[in-house]
Amino acid sequence: MKQLSILVLASLLVSVPGAAQDVAGSGVWRNYDFVPGKTVWKATDFSAEPVGRFPGRQLEFVSGNMQIVMVDSVRLLEAVDRSIFRLVLPSVLPESFTLEFDLKNPTPNIGVRVFIGPRAKTTKELDYLDLAARPGIYRNGAAISATRHELAKTMTPMKLQVDGEYAILYAGSTRVSQAPIAKFPRSNTIEFHLDANPRFPLYITNLVVAVGLDKLYEALVKDGEFTTRGIVFDSNSDRLRPESTPVLEELLTALRDHPDLRVAIEGHTDGQGETGYNQALSERRAAAVVRYLAEAGIAAARLSAIGKGESAPAGDNATAEGRQQNRRVIVRKVP
Q1: Digit-coded pLDDT (tens) for 224-248
Q2: pTM above 0.85, yes or no
Q3: In order of start, what are the domains of the chain with their CATH numbers?
Q4: How far is residue 308's CA from residue 8's CA, in Å, rounded to a whole number?
């Protein structure tokens, strides 16, 4: 059998909130199956936005009272009244897409509703997210799939994955919704309705919309490469985040099922920070992925690690979308 080599481009990704002791591939993360879309269509970055202003260059204001505030040295969008904003996308969403954001509700019973397209055009037969005491997928005011979960204590990563009519929704490590009969519309806007007041403000940040949910080995056979943003590390660290589990396990399955495969893990970063630091960090992170694979039983002779830092951008580092795209993993066939 002809030997097939693979080049895997590992990522430098921002940190994700969660318990520091959680380990990829273990505990509750064994069943975690959210994988972000391959191509970033929209991403927000509030780090340079002026405090006290609405970030109108990144979000479309509809109504209410919202402003950028500083909380623990991080800029967040705060709503202090019932408010609405939109994410405007470059095109109508395809069949497969993901939506991610970090959310802190003011109380367990006050939260956010998210509509694909303007709410006024969402009929009773179509679905939306209701993120309050029982976050999940709703239709005509009733839950299609929802689970009681606390969203008011800390910033919680919310992650929606839609693939045709199949949809899953995570709040942190908990899958709060799974709907094989979801009916989300497709639009070029996503509308957020924030339920807040001056006594009970609501906070949201790190909004990302991405498209494309390719299967790793199928993409290798068809296209010769596979790109993912699903390998995640702690901030300024080579420690793998537990959210990396689905992609790491998919890679392990490909290696186990095809013993002729060899892989090189190559790290890529965005252009923020010092070039030398990014280079060294990408090398350590690539090595961390190799360690994970080796500890799972893949022979060391089939694995190698390379760091590329910021030297090969896939997007424009001057934009939030480009920086998200540059923090990536590519699995590539090598002749």
Answers
A1: 777 778 888 888 889 999 999 999 9
A2: yes
A3: 4-36+214-334 (3.30.1330.60), 39-211 (2.60.120.560)
A4: 12
